[in-house]
Amino acid sequence: MSSEIRVSLEQFVSRTDPPDRRLVVVGADADDPLAAMLAETFGSSIDVETAPETHGIETTDRLPEDEPTVVLLEGDRIEATSPMSTVYDAVLGINSDLFVTGARGIEDVGLPAVFAGLEGHRFGLRGYPRAGKEKLLLIVVSRWIERLAWVRGRGTLRSAFQELSRIDDEVGTREAYETLAGTDLAVHLYGAGGSERLDRLGSVHRGTSPAYRRSWFVVFRPPTGETVEESDGEVPTGAAQVAIEDGPGVWEGFWTTDPETVQEIDDHIAGEL
Length: 273
Hints:
Protein name: Histidine kinase
Distance between the termini: 10 Å
Structural class: alpha+beta
GO molecular function: kinase activity
Number of strands: 13
Strand order of the largest sheet: 5-13-12-9-6-7-8
Order of helices and strands: HEHEEEHHHEHEHHEEHEEEEEH
Strand content: 25-35%
Keywords: Kinase, Transferase
């Protein structure tokens, strides 16, 4: 049964058929260090280019001239833009220790527009020591989904940790889930081991099959289809990230805010794990 579950979770990833996307750092030279960090973050999953000017990029918006801008392109069409400073503050300038220690709390997580625009893109990312920053992308998206659930305050949140002891050992992770447990959310935790103290954080689902050991998912399913208003505009009503460990420290996954896909993933996990 466990192998069947893993194959089914893999199918959510393998059926992903992303469009032709690339990132261009406009206003940066080929040797720009932040552009290099951005390329390192994505590994081989998406092309990152530099362009000193907007030559060759069709845009009706005037891009800022005082700093580089990260542009997400689908074909030749601009899908999203984010100032490099925003990308740096949200992803490039941080590391996983900030989340582990609690220095960056659940309320501090943001996802720049160019990252949010990459939903549905299939990523192959490596963890440390194979790569320095690639896995951080999945960590940031996971925390962003947790923040989305916290902002909503009700609905269902399902999170897989492989080893539930991480919640006991990582101060920041424990604080995040104590915060989530203080809302009206139905929180479900999946993994192996872990102390009995975790039961006060939500419903704990323990297992040692590949579905528990090799799966990384964070799924927030809201109770209704309503949007939530924030100061910076509408936010998605729900989101899901699913990743499968293909080898030691090597992850293949994607994230989505599509309501039907979020519901399908949530139904699958609820019925099989």
